[in-house]
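We now fix the convention by which a protein and its fold are recorded. Think of the row as the fold of the chain written in a discrete alphabet. Here is one such record, which you should read through line by line.
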Amino acid sequence: MAKTLRKKSVPATLPEPMPRRVDPCVATLVDKPPKGSEWAFEVKWDGYRLAVHVEPGEVKAITRSGYDWTKKFGLIAAEARELGHASMILDGEAVVLDDQGRSDFGLLQRAVGKKPSLHEPSEIIFYAFDLLYLDGQDLRMHPLSERRRLLEPIVAGRTGAIRFSEEVHAEGAEFFQIACEMGLEGIIAKRRDRPYHSGRRPEWLKIKCVRRDTFAIVGYEPSTVPGAIGRLLLGANKGGDLVYVGGCGTGWSNQESVALRELLNAIPADKPAVALKRKGAFFARPLLVADVEYRAWTQDGKLRHPSFKGVREMAGPSEVYEIKRDA
């Protein structure tokens, strides 16, 4: 007598709880882009890292440090409600673009700040580049390629407050060169085959564009360390005059700092060579120039993330960086 085979019931997949907060995966800084088809490349956005949490009846915008900034990014939160899913976590960057389409951190700070600004909160764009949770499924252990496959139809093609951070299909070195020529901050490289892990990780890399120019030293601010310099005060040429372009406070040893202060103390100025009032500052005649590495220019004409690389006597005014009149 034949036995009757009974079908085994397949248990339904239970929904996984949505994390209240996910510490972001942070890229490791390297000098040059990696090689290999396992790497995907994106623009490095210069803004605030956000995780956008969507749940029934609630949307939150959580910063990298865990602060709830939903009110600051109200339009992003409102648009996240319209993406067609009951629950999800988007990982991305909130930015404001300049008139050449480049993200500018200074513009973003003013747009979310309390002071009057030419840039409104409505100009803030959230570029989504990862999907960590979707409709009851925690995606963090899935490879990046799968997470991006699920993310793309949700946000790709949108032109509002939420947009898709596109992968750039090019060799890393070629893309990096083009990004720097365009004045971008840099690029990001990510392993397509790796899961999402919080913290600084080797499977996400950042390669930054660095500029290096020469600026007149117009003075310094003293350090709290006796005899040393806290910040060098720097100037650039503009229309035949020196203009202040900010201070540089890194890049030297304590011994170099003391030596720099002695050099500048020997060439005091009767009045500042630039239009600048700074309590406690020492102003020197602009006879020395500093080689400075920096990332970019801020909207108000200051060096961003400058680092001192060397000093020498000025051979002539043409040695000093020239700011174009329309800059």
Helices lie at 74-80, 105-112, 144-155, 172-181, 254-265.
